[in-house]
Amino acid sequence: NAGVMQNPRHLVRRRGQEARLRCSPMKGHSHVYWYRQLPEEGLKFMVYLQKENIIDESGMPKERFSAEFPKEGPSILRIQQVVRGDSAAYFCASSLSSIDTQYFGPGTRLTVL
Amino acid sequence: SQQGEEDPQALSIQEGENATMNCSYKTSINNLQWYRQNSGRGLVHLILIRSNEREKHSGRLRVTLDTSKKSSSLLITASRAADTASYFCATDTGNQFYFGTGTSLTVIP
Fold this sequence. Notes:
The structure holds 2 protein chains of 2 kinds.
Chain A: E1 5-7, E2 10-13, E3 19-24, E4 31-37, E5 43-50, E6 53-56, E7 65-68, E8 75-79, E9 88-95, E10 103-104, E11 108-112
Parallel strand pairs in A: 2-11
Antiparallel strand pairs in A: 1-3, 3-8, 4-5, 4-9, 5-6, 7-8, 9-10, 9-11
Chain B: E1 5-7, E2 10-14, E3 19-24, E4 31-37, E5 44-50, E6 55-58, E7 61-66, E8 71-76, E9 85-92, E10 97-99, E11 103-108
């Protein structure tokens, strides 16, 4: 059973471009969480999705950021018109249910030039 | 894979008692972090301790770090029913971020 997969592992964008980060949950997992980590800081919760539904997006900036988890395919975190402050590591986690352990992917390190 | 190991896996205490959770890891780290997870919620960051620090406090939380033993402990003093949750340690090596297996804490009112 493959773990949580994220791609790309490293992403470089220029200011104003779009960044699309993908997360494939563990097999059988329908709950996905996205986190952002700034250097030397802890993970900050962004959004919690369950297949086709956003359950909690309280940690996600209102503008430029969006997330989806379609019926088929990976979860996508999209950042439009990236700025330098978006440079961070973005981690996703998946779980079997809302009460089960979250398993983390290796993260995507986004660098905005 | 996750490199952290935590013990105990589950802990049940009475309200008002102290709860101690331990975390061990395998490689050199830049910092170690503790998180809480309530059912159905995202992880909540509790405290970060850097590799050159030995102890850190935040409210009722006390974290220690022993890099020679590659271990850390989280102490929650005067526990409350609302502290019932799963607690995870995470190690940041600079290149990788690893989570431990977690301790499930139940505080009985």
